[in-house]
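ESCALATION

Customer reports they have been waiting on this structure for their group meeting. Please prioritize. Original submission:
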Amino acid sequence: MDVTVSSRHVELSAAQKSAAEEKISRLSRFFEGMDRATVHLYEEQNPRIADKKDVCEITVIGHGRHVHAKCAAPDPSSAVDAAAAKLERELRDLKERLVSRSHPR
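Update from on-call: job pushed to the front of the queue and completed.
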């Protein structure tokens, strides 16, 4: 799986980028055929919110499907972890739907 990590208003080290790439590339085991994943990290820019949060958006594309997850957390690494967990659940549900559709009871 080809993983692209980008950030806006957030400084990411090389270790954080590689950790995000590794975590997202492991998601290919839940649903085969996903070709590409994009990870966008940015800081929420709302002046009404006192506590700034980092937002992580992950989009996985493959086989004509687009699966998207978005999570916010106090720091970038926990935002990536939360979004990856949400995306894992969505990919598992997608696979269950497709398998149950092709194998009726």
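Sent to customer with the following note: The helical segments are 14-25, 76-102.
Escalation resolved.
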